[in-house]
Amino acid sequence: MKVSLDSPLLTDLYELTMLQAYFDGGMNDSASFELFVRSLPPQRNFLMAAGLEQVLDYLEKLRFTEDDLALLARTGRFKPGFLRSLGTLHFTGDVDAIREGTVFFPDEPVLRITAPMREAQLVESRVMNLIHYQTVVASKAARIVLAAPDAQLIDFGLRRAHGSEAALLSARASYLAGFTGTATLAAGVRFGISVHGTMAHSYVQAHANETQAFEDFAHSQPANTTLLIDTYDTEAAARKIVDLARRVARYGIAIKAVRIDSGDLGEHARRVRRILDEGGLPYVTIFASGNLDEYRVRDLVAAHAPIDGFGVGTRMNTSADAPYLDFAYKLVEYAHQPRRKRSEGKATWPARKAVFRQVDRHGVMTRDCLALADERRDGIALLEPVMVAGARRKGQPNLAASRDHARRQLMALPLALQSLEPADPYPVAVSDALKHLAQRLDASAPASTKNQE
């Protein structure tokens, strides 16, 4: 039996064993869970939220099929009455979330789900999976955008992404963060992202000589003549491009760009730029790729390397220096009563919460405040309703609008946080009302449970 990515079986087993126990105990009152990050990785000054669109798609489609129920029955772990109840289960709850492309910080809820307990509990693993991965990639991609704000940036990550879904979602997340496009064709089709491609070294090697490879490709792809010039000798290939440009111009073909994928990218780019300019090709741009990340891109930009665009793959799509975030999805309210986890090193703030952001007169972020959801405070409220009673609210921003929002968010970051180097933490205050509620819950807890999870 095949299990699709939309299946509720794409979850941790303990979600369903808890659902069985909730069912047995008659526990299905309203529950609120919030998704947040406990701390930033050492290399990060901020994170960028992504993946909400896929979460809403998942919640809308949430259903157990007959095959799903048959598979669960064969495990012998679940009772017939419980399985029958799953046959009619679908998501009927509310979702509040910060907008995709918003920058955020530790303890700030990215998303809150309020629904009958069984629904809110069941979706935990997949919701975390969808938000976590795209947030990891978008946060890494945003740093590359900050390192090269004026360059063409293309996602090159399909071949080393951790699976096909990761390749698609990383293309989406990097585009959201400000990348120009992707080399992954399916992502372009699925998400409406511009698709870019050149050629591989194998194409050049397959020809008897490099010049013939370039000329054949130019005639085959006259509107997309980007030529890979580092298969043998980068500078010698650039000289061949000068000669080729004159020949193909008779057919109305203009060489668009050259790509360099190896060696000292900055030095090669300088030599190639000089060759192209002296050959009358100042309009031919230079594109670079090859194990790039924000640090290498930053250094190339700082050294004024004449590179117009970068193809970034593995180190972004796997977020090589910070491949995971300490995300948590925790119960904050059940049966309209606040809940607080007090585990050592993993205590949570209770109750449904809001995040308010203050900016200065130039629109630069100055501080955030974590407060109770019903508090009224100065600033911009970051969480907003995106799904009510299981139905997505109309007028939600599309990917292009979210990308514009992400660009504005990066511009609103204090300069210190835009740096690739660690900065002093951005201030996130906690309201007195929230602190007092946590203290009251701690004081009222039975002594025997004060140190338990």
UniProtKB/TrEMBL annotation:
Pathway as given in its UniProt record: Cofactor biosynthesis; NAD(+) biosynthesis; nicotinate D-ribonucleotide from nicotinate: step 1/1
InterPro entries in alphabetical order: Aldolase_TIM, N/Namide_PRibTrfase, NAPRTase_C, NAPRTase_N, Nic_PRibTrfase-Fam, Nic_PRibTrfase_pncB, Nicotinate_pribotase-like_C
Domain Nicotinate/nicotinamide phosphoribosyltransferase per the UniProt entry, residue ranges: 152-331
Any GO CC annotation of this UniProt entry: cytosol
Gene Ontology terms: biological process: NAD+ biosynthetic process via the salvage pathway
PTMs per UniProt: Transiently phosphorylated on a His residue during the reaction cycle. Phosphorylation strongly increases the affinity for substrates and increases the rate of nicotinate D-ribonucleotide production. Dephosphorylation regenerates the low-affinity form of the enzyme, leading to product release.
Taxonomic superkingdom: Bacteria
Residue stretches making up the Nicotinate phosphoribosyltransferase C-terminal domain: 381-437
Gene Ontology molecular function terms on file: glycosyltransferase activity; nicotinate phosphoribosyltransferase activity
E.C. number: 6.3.4.21
Family annotation (CDD domains): NAPRTase_A
Function: Catalyzes the first step in the biosynthesis of NAD from nicotinic acid, the ATP-dependent synthesis of beta-nicotinate D-ribonucleotide from nicotinate and 5-phospho-D-ribose 1-phosphate.
Protein family: Belongs to the NAPRTase family.
Name this polypeptide is given: Nicotinate phosphoribosyltransferase
Organism: Trinickia symbiotica
Organismal lineage: Bacteria, Pseudomonadati, Pseudomonadota, Betaproteobacteria, Burkholderiales
